[in-house]
Specification:
437 residues; alpha/beta; Four Helix Bundle (Hemerythrin (Met), subunit A); Rossmann fold; 6-stranded mixed β-sheet
Length: 437
């Protein structure tokens, strides 16, 4: 079915002390034999020997042998544990390619594992998320997807919907059978409402949790000279943004990231929002307004030493559609009710405490949490389709009409796992009903 592929599993571009070159495919053992002078191992064994280029010794290695089908990819796998180094590692890889292997494409080992039924897309995406995790919480959330709880959750929902589809299909195709349940709108609505509630619970539980992996997009907004750039610098503990007494210094969006509590905050310090005839400043202000729309959290910085202006009021009104924190800066000049900080002196503990409070309710142990954007979009699509079916039934449509929306919802959930096969529907129909008497 597949040829034999090879790739460097470790860094490959650095001089690490140890490197691993991996082979996968039906002929993985055969390709390895051509360059390995040592004992060929049994399944799940490690042997010692030398990599040779004809008669020349290239390296002294340990080789791990894994026989199909109980491997990561479901194919024969060989892992050569060699001494590190860019030159040495790549030389061994080139020898494998010269002796029958093909260079693997990006992610091809995991792709083969998926195609061979060794993992679903949820686990494949979790592996990707783990590799690129930037915080411990992100890594923990990714690893939790390895145990299959999320996959089982989706499978149960698929099963519920599949049973409904099978019952409708059987009513359409086999109405003459007495043992087939007569599925009326009155009977179907509660079952669809139950599925709808399950989907809503997942979306609600996942709304905040996705911030763990994706991070929270934070827009720092306010009038010129309110202290936005000083606040960004205080968060990042570096002079990332230019700070002067001249209003309108920030003409573009300045970015930076930091972890606070469980979440990674991706800050965007924006140009001061105010009325101006300066065309360059106007462009910066337009970008600021765009960042308000894109942000998950708005931090509105106000110069606490002055009265709030009409511009501050407009910023507050446009920001409150999102999670919003009003911050009074320059507490050394004047104390105000609410959250007061002194960004210039990096006295921002009141603000960081409030940020932690906003995201404190994220439960990483909740099995109904889904943090992957693609998966959440498919859950949302499934819910929309189920709602369409519910609305149709309430308006008097028959089950054989709304079945199209129900099937779309089932396909959405199948696409989360990477499979939504018609054979599943046939199996369900003939398993649950005594057809063919």
């Amino acid at each position: 079915m597949f040829d034999t592929i090879a790739a460097i599993s470790t860094g490959g571009m650095t001089n690490d002390p140890i490197s691993i070159i991996r082979l996968s495919g039906a002929d993985a053992f055969g390709v390895a034999k051509k360059i390995f002078n040592g004992k060929i191992g049994n399944d799940k064994s490690i042997t010692y020997g030398f990599i040779k280029d004809n008669k020349e010794v290239v390296d002294e290695v340990l080789v791990a042998w894994f026989k199909a089908p109980n491997t990561f990819t479901g194919e024969n796998i060989v892992e050569i544990n060699a001494h590190g180094g860019i030159v040495n590692t790549n030389r061994i890889l080139q020898l494998l390619l010269a002796n029958g292997a093909r260079l693997a494409e990006r992610g091809e080992f995991s792709r083969r594992a998926f195609l061979n039924g060794k993992m679903d897309l949820i686990k494949a995406e979790a592996i990707h998320d783990l590799i690129f995790a930037k915080t411990k919480e992100q890594a923990d959330l990714s690893v939790k997807k390895f145990d299959g709880e999320t996959s089982n959750l989706i499978e149960k929902l698929k099963k519920k919907i599949l049973n409904i589809i099978a019952t409708i299909e059987t009513n359409i195709d086999y109405p003459e059978y007495d043992d087939v349940e007569n599925l009326t709108n009155k009977k179907l609505l509660p079952r669809l409402n139950n599925v709808n509630s399950d989907l809503e619970e997942i979306l609600t539980s996942s709304k905040k949790s996705k911030y763990i992996y994706e991070g929270v997009k934070v827009a720092i907004v306010g009038k010129p000279n309110a202290g936005k750039s000083s606040l960004l610098n205080a968060f990042l503990n570096e002079e990332k943004a230019i700070v002067t007494e001249i209003p309108g210094t920030t003409r573009d969006v300045v970015e930076g990231s930091i972890q606070i509590g469980q979440v990674l905050l991706n800050f965007k310090d924006t140009a001061g929002i105010h009325t101006t005839n300066d065309k360059i400043e106007q462009l910066g202000i337009q970008k600021s307004l765009e960042k308000i729309n894109e942000a998950d959290l708005i931090i509105h910085v106000i110069d606490g030493s002055k009265k709030e202006s009409k511009d501050d009021f407009l910023i507050e009104q446009s920001s409150k559609i999102k999670p919003y924190i009003k911050v009074y800066n320059k507490s050394d000049l004047k104390q105000r009710d609410g959250i007061s900080i002194n960004a210039k002196n990096k006295e921002i503990s009141n603000l960081t405490k409030e940020i932690k409070n906003i995201f404190k309710d994220i439960d990483l142990n909740n099995e109904k949490i889904i943090n992957n954007t693609r998966q959440l979009s498919l859950i949302d699509s499934a819910k929309i389709n189920i709602n369409e079916a519910i609305t149709g039934l309430k308006e008097g449509m028959l089950p054989d009409t709304v079945i199209i929306d129900i099937q779309k919802a089932w396909e959405d959930l199948g696409n989360i796992l990477g499979r939504a096969e018609a054979t599943d529907l046939l199996d369900e129909m003939f398993k649950n009903f005594c057809l063919g008497k």
